[in-house]
Specification:
Elements lengths: L3 E2 L10 H7 L1 H4 L10 H21 L6 E4 L2 H12 L6 E6 L4 H11 L3 E6 L9 H7 L4 E5 L13 H10 L3 E5 L22 E5 L10 E5 L14 H4 L7 H20 L7 H17 L3 E3 L10 E6 L4 H10 L2 E2 L15 H5 L4 H4 L2 E5 L6 H20 L13
Parallel strand pairs: 1-11, 3-4, 3-5, 5-6, 6-7
Antiparallel strand pairs: 2-8, 7-8, 9-10, 10-12
Helix pairs in contact: 1-9, 3-9, 4-5, 10-14, 11-14
C-alpha cells in the first residue's frame, strides 16, 4: 500500500545526509568528548562544529547554545533555570503552550512561583495588550511559544519579547515548530534581540529524536536542573550525545540552505502553496468544515481543519487504513480523552475540537501527495458522517 506522511509537526523523517553525518560516531569515532586523548578530542571537535552550525542557524554565539535531550528538557531548563528556587517570583505564559511548558509551570506554581496563563484570541493569537496588563513588579519570566504545534499560528514574538524586556523580565520562547521553518535572528541587533531563551528540537528539523538545544543569551544566569559534571559550561551535566549533536548540526546546516532559498520573511513559499492547495481542495469538496486559526499568520506547512459531525480519532484511523498519516493534534496528547486544550482555549466547543485534524507537511512533501490526500479525505469524511447521529444529509437540489 502506498503511504503518504503528513504529520511533520509530530516528527520529521531522518534525512539520509543527517544519518550519514552521525553514523561514524556510533561505530568508529566513539570517544567521549570530555576525554583528552585523540578519540576524545575528535569527538570534541565534532561537537564544536555542530555548535557552530546551530549558532549560525540562530544568528547567535556558539557559546550561547546548550545541547539537551530535546524540546521538553530545553523548556524545563529555561523555566526552572531562569526562576530561582524558593524565591517569590511571577511567571507569565499562555493557555495554548505545549505541555512541556504547561506542566512545568504547574510544577513551579507549587514552588512559590505565581503563574498567569494568558488567554488566546479565536485566531489562536496572544495579544500584546494582554501581556502588558498581566505584568507585575515581580514578573521574572515570560514564556510564549513562537509557532503553535497544533494550528501553526505564529505569535508576535518580537513585540511580546520587547514588552517583557521593558518590564525587566526575561523572555523565553518554545520555537520547536519555528526553527528551520522561519528565519530566526537572535543577534544583538536583530529583530529577535529581546529573546533571552529559545528552545529547539532535532526531530522537528530532520534530525533524530533525543537531541535538542536551548539558546541562552550570555547575559542570562541559568541554574542547571541536572547536576553532575561541568558539561555545556556547567549548564547541563551529562556526557554529550555526540552522534545526536552531530546530526543536529547537520540538520541546522540543511535548514540554513533551505531558508536561503525561501521567502526571507514568510518562509518556504512552495510549502505554503502546497498547504493552501490542500486546504482549498478540502474546503471546496466538504461541507461544514473550516480552518482553525484562519486569518492569523501561520507556519507554511501546517493546517488544522475541523470536520463537524466527525470524531477526529475515527478520521485519523480511517485515513491511516488508506495510507495517509495525519494527526488529531499534538502527538504528546495522542490517546487523550479530553479535547485539545489549544483549540478549546481558542473558543472551539469540545465537539468541534474533537472533530479537528492537523495536516503538517514536510520539506519533502510533493504536489502528487497532496492530490492523493484530496482523493481520500472527502470520501473518509462522508463515510463517517453517514454513521454520525448528528449528521443530516443535505437534501438534493431540485432543478
Amino acid at each position: 500500500m502506498r503511504r503518504v506522511y503528513m504529520d511533520a509537526n509530530a516528527t520529521t523523517p531522518l534525512l539520509p545526509e543527517v544519518f550519514e553525518a552521525m553514523r561514524p560516531f556510533f561505530l568508529e569515532h566513539y570517544g567521549n568528548a570530555s576525554s583528552i586523548h585523540q578519540q576524545g578530542q575528535f569527538a570534541r571537535a565534532a561537537v564544536d562544529h555542530a555548535r557552530d552550525s546551530v549558532a549560525r542557524l540562530l544568528h547567535c554565539r556558539a557559546s550561547e547554545i546548550v545541547f539537551t535531550s530535546g524540546g521538553t528538557e530545553s523548556d524545563n531548563l529555561a523555566l526552572f533555570g531562569a526562576l530561582p528556587a524558593n524565591e517569590p517570583a511571577h511567571l507569565i505564559t499562555s493557555s495554548i503552550e505545549h505541555d512541556a511548558i504547561l506542566r512545568a509551570a504547574e510544577a513551579l506554581s507549587r514552588r512559590n512561583v505565581e503563574v498567569t496563563f494568558l488567554p488566546s484570541t479565536p485566531q489562536g493569537l496572544i495579544e500584546p495588550s494582554a501581556l502588558q496588563a498581566a505584568l507585575r513588579p515581580n514578573t521574572r519570566l515570560v514564556s510564549i511559544m513562537f509557532a503553535n504545534n497544533e494550528t501553526g499560528v505564529i505569535q508576535p514574538i518580537a513585540e511580546l519579547a520587547s514588552i517583557a524586556h521593558a518590564a525587566g523580565a526575561l523572555f523565553h520562547t518554545d520555537a520547536v515548530q519555528a526553527a528551520g521553518r522561519l528565519p530566526l535572528d537572535l543577534s544583538p541587533k536583530g529583530p529577535l534581540k529581546d529573546i533571552d531563551l529559545l528552545t529547539l528540537s532535532g526531530h522537528k528539523i530532520y534530525a533524530p529524536k533525543g537531541i535538542g538545544a536551548l539558546f541562552v543569551r550570555r547575559s542570562v544566569r541559568l541554574s542547571p536542573i541536572l547536576h553532575g559534571g561541568s558539561h555545556e559550561r556547567q549548564r547541563r551535566a551529562g556526557t554529550e550525545n555526540v552522534a545526536g549533536i552531530v546530526a543536529l548540526g547537520k540538520a541546522a546546516e540543511l535548514s540554513q540552505q533551505w531558508l536561503a532559498q525561501d521567502n526571507p520573511t514568510d518562509g518556504p513559499t512552495h510549502l505554503a502553496a502546497l498547504r493552501d492547495r490542500l486546504e482549498q481542495g478540502i474546503l471546496s469538496q466538504i461541507e461544514e468544515c473550516g480552518v482553525n486559526g484562519a486569518g492569523a499568520p501561520r507556519v507554511a506547512n501546517t493546517t488544522n481543519i475541523y470536520f463537524d459531525h466527525v470524531e477526529a480519532e475515527a478520521l485519523v484511523i480511517a485515513l491511516d487504513l488508506k495510507g495517509l498519516s495525519v494527526s488529531g493534534g499534538s502527538a504528546c496528547q495522542s490517546g487523550a480523552t479530553e479535547p485539545s486544550h489549544v483549540l478549546t482555549a481558542m473558543g472551539l466547543t469540545p465537539a468541534r475540537a474533537r472533530a479537528s485534524i492537523r495536516f503538517s507537511l514536510a520539506r519533502l512533501t510533493t504536489a502528487e501527495e497532496v492530490d492523493f490526500a484530496l482523493t481520500l479525505v472527502p470520501a473518509a469524511v462522508a463515510r463517517l458522517r453517514e454513521l454520525s447521529p448528528t449528521w443530516r444529509k443535505p437534501e438534493p437540489v431540485v432543478a
